[in-house]
Amino acid sequence: MRIAELMTKNVVTVREWDELGLSSDLMRFRRFRHIPVVDAHQRVVGMLSRMDLVEQASRPGNPRLIPVYDVMHRPPITIAGEARVEEAAELMRKHKVHSVPVTDAEGVLQGIVTDSDVLSAVAGTAMPVRDLSSVPVARVMTPDPITIDTDATLGEAAGALLEGGFRHLPVIDADQKLVGMLSERDLRSAFGTDFLDWTSVEQSRLDDVVTNAMVPDPVIVRARSRLMDVVDVFTDERIGALPVLDEDDRLVGILSYVDVLVWLRDHVRAEGAETAPAQPSP
């Protein structure tokens, strides 16, 4: 399947000299994780993410007045509409991004493709992956994930997410049992503010415990579950990451979109190597 068949064509963008406050508002109200940055000719010149805003918020000054150009990632990672889905999967994994702008030969924005689009294509058998149903989650997950205790504060959780560069934290009790999941979005809701204002949150909110903001009894997956079943959960429930438990209910890993994309990239490469015609001897 080609990227042009998957991409979203009507893309919300910002200009490179727009203020960060506009980008923050768009991300908050439209629930975006990334926004392409374009010039006056609709050429993609950068990409802005939620984490870019969080990092900027910890610096001196009023971040809402800073131009997007000073914070955006450049040069942007882009892909052509004629590219195949597996190429997008490899690009996302290589550069650790969750969405990629689709451009023409002149760099003009044509659309955007996300990790969710890629996984939906897999779930819909749009790709020639023959043994997706035989792959156990344990083979694909990230083992021994970073966790946070039930008595930790929201301020500590925000720091852990920012320092680690991830978006989800499993919450465990004194017996090392999973009791919830805390996400970047949960923190935003708890703080009652957008990313650019979180450092001005009242101390009482920062000192609140994670159990008051986490999602209790989260959707979980077993280490022996099939990857195909988990892909369905990702695409149907729109969940970004799943805690992985063993048969004794111990947390043994976490499975995210990125983990699935890693496996997908490696699998497609392996299939290509197996089916490639042998080169004649010189």
Give the helix/strand layout.
Elements: H1 3-6, E1 14-15, H2 20-30, E2 34-38, E3 44-49, H3 50-57, E4 79-80, H4 85-95, E5 99-103, E6 109-114, H5 115-123, H6 137-140, E7 142-143, E8 148-149, H7 154-164, E9 168-172, E10 178-183, H8 184-191, H9 203-206, E11 215-216, E12 221-222, H10 227-237, E13 241-245, E14 251-256, H11 257-275
Parallel strand pairs: 1-2, 4-5, 8-9, 12-13
Antiparallel strand pairs: 2-3, 5-6, 7-14, 9-10, 10-11, 13-14
Helix pairs in contact: 4-11, 5-10, 5-11
Task: List SSEs in N-to-C order.
Answer: HEHEEHEHEEHHEEHEEHHEEHEEH
Spatial strand sequence of the major β-sheet? 7-14-13-12
CATH topology of the largest domain: CBS-domain
Domain tally: 2
Tell me the name of the CATH homologous superfamily of the largest domain: CBS-domain
Q: What share of the residues does DSSP label as strand, in percent?
A: 15-25%
Quote the average pLDDT.
84
Flag low-confidence runs: 125-129
Largest sheet: 4 strands, mixed
CATH architecture of the largest domain: Roll
Figure out the total of helices: 11
Could you tell me how far the N terminus lies from the C terminus, measured between alpha carbons in angstroms?
35 Å
**Global morphology:** flat
Q: Given this structure, which CATH class of the largest domain is correct? A: Alpha Beta
Q: Bin the helical content.
A: 25-40%
Give the total of beta strands.
14
Rg from C-alpha positions?
20 Å
